[in-house]
């Protein structure tokens, strides 16, 4: 079994090039969705423009028949109506007038803030030189769980954005044939990867729960903006307040997104159409919000903080990084620090089998 450092050779800043290329590609695709989506959001938000192509001749008499309730159905099995379900019209208006613009504003706004922050503030560099001594922060199992969940999250985000905005972006650009294959593939991936993501997310939340309970030092960390306000870096344990906020967003909004997705993924438990429509609205709002926040998480863990990606790629962090960003945790585990050169040598001799020479600080008891 090869270690991550053998599969991903490190370079100057200890960041795997292939992972950075993947992250850049993800950000570029999101920029494409947002930039092109802005030019089409007016069409998406115009219910008359869409309905005229789907349901022609919607005159006043037709709407009177719809409103009197004669054609309303309450289950997915009794599809004998020949007019429009009024609740479906409400769902479409909410989706087009509110959810679609909300997604563009949330994701586009986050991308803009990240770009401005990087240009103005720059990368969070280490205040002291690297010591050369390493501390185990993430075991191989924890890293595998993290990258599995992260990969599934990115795939679900991209396919979900395609389902929401894709017809306004790719259909006019590439035509019906390409669009049909693309949306079919997106739907298939989204439907089948969603439950797998849900299972792995619950596992990783349970595994890291003990490190994410709020503590007194978290309020000071937030007051200082993680070190951006005032002098000195605020105290932090194994997880700082920002990481804890991301954890609890996944544990709350993430679970809601998973549950609403399962309601739509398995439409064979007597769900009414109203239930499916509300599940779709809740799922979209939660998923778009999490995608926007995830962009900040990705930035901080890669380009924004020196040494952060190194820890999740190799499992080890430098002593200087631990003291600067997680000083309370460092005081607990500093006796476990090992020489970096000796660690690399031992890994080479063991051919990747000596990936965990010390105790795992992230393993729940």
From TrEMBL:
Subcellular location: Cell membrane
Gene Ontology cellular component terms for the protein in this record: formate dehydrogenase complex; plasma membrane
Keywords: Cell membrane, Electron transport, Heme, Iron, Membrane, Metal-binding, Signal, Transmembrane, Transmembrane helix, Transport
Designated name of the protein: Formate dehydrogenase subunit gamma
Organism: Halomonas binhaiensis
Record GO terms (molecular function): electron transfer activity; formate dehydrogenase (NAD+) activity; formate dehydrogenase (quinone) activity; metal ion binding
Signal peptide: 1-44
Compositional bias per record (Basic and acidic residues), positions renumbered to this chain: 340-357
